[in-house]
Design goal:
Blueprint (H helix, E strand, L loop, with lengths): L1 H19 L3 H10 L1 H12 L6 H18 L8 H20 L7 H21 L5 H8 L3 H12 L9 E4 L4 E3 H4 L3 H20 L4 H12 L4 H8 L3 H27 L1
């Protein structure tokens, strides 16, 4: 008990020292003092997945280092309680990143594992790769179910956008080339609308166009716009109202085309 208490005391001293003056040397000492914590969590997680314990342990040290860098000893919290979510979280992130993007039903995953063993066995006994029907019969499942599970297994990983889908005379077409760039389409649409609006504005009387651009585009107060063109604010309002009506008339063909 005394040894454990002295280890905790030593650990807190190092954490306080690291908090005031971070260094790799102090951090490594803290890591060595908490090796048991990382190993304990790695053992628990390894029993819940198929990843090797050694890989989880190494990933756990990354979480421990993150905890050391973020721990504030002035908050009165035990470091072990603070570090566990970081260590476990790093392992779970690792498992999530390695997991298949497409989740396959357990029945099909088990069928694939059994099918791989059957395929290897039949290849030896037959002297050639077995056909799907032969594998299905050995597994005592229908040909349809075996092929569905095999297809699901093949499609569990997404295709790269750089995957070639067609060949042309002097180049190849990738999957990414065939996908629509929605961001570019949006920008293109906005630019077309801007050009249509600018074309309609150019057809307005000069002072009316200037009043609309000043108030709506440059956000200049109508009173200031009135002073600049030598009219009353009411006149500016009337010009803007009339100009907006003219714009709607000029833009009607474009609006009708969009709606259709």
């Amino acid at each position: 008990m005394a040894d454990r208490s002295s280890v905790r005391s030593r650990g807190m001293e190092l954490l306080i020292a690291y908090h005031h003056n971070p260094s790799i040397q102090i951090r490594n000492q803290i890591v060595r003092l908490n090796v048991g914590l990382v190993r304990k969590i790695a053992h628990r997680v390894s029993h819940q997945c198929a990843e090797p314990y050694e890989d989880l342990e190494q990933i756990g040290y990354l979480g421990l280092i993150r905890a050391i860098e973020r721990f504030d000893p002035t908050q009165g919290c035990a470091f072990s309680s603070f570090a566990v979510p970081y260590i476990r979280g790093e392992m779970l992130h690792f498992l999530r990143d390695k997991a298949s993007t497409v989740r396959i039903p357990r029945r099909w995953r088990e069928l694939q594992a059994q099918g791989q063993k059957v395929r290897e066995s039949l290849t030896v006994s037959l002297g050639r790769p077995p056909k799907d029907i032969e594998i299905a019969q050995a597994l005592d499942v229908s040909l349809c179910e075996w092929r569905e599970s095999k297809l699901a297994h093949q499609n569990r990983t997404p295709l790269s956008l750089d995957a070639t889908v067609a060949h042309q005379v002097d180049s190849t077409v990738t999957l990414g080339d065939t996908l629509l760039d929605t961001h570019y389409q949006t920008l293109q649409s906005l630019e077309e609308e801007r050009q249509q609006l600018q074309g309609a504005l150019n057809n307005l009387e000069e002072k009316t166009r200037w009043a609309i651009e000043s108030v709506f585009f440059q956000e200049i107060p109508r009173k200031e716009v009135a002073q600049q063109i030598g009219v009353s604010p009411m006149t500016v309002t009337r010009r803007i109202k009339r100009g907006l009506g003219e714009l709607m008339t000029l833009l009607k063909p474009s609006l009708a085309q969009v709606e259709s």
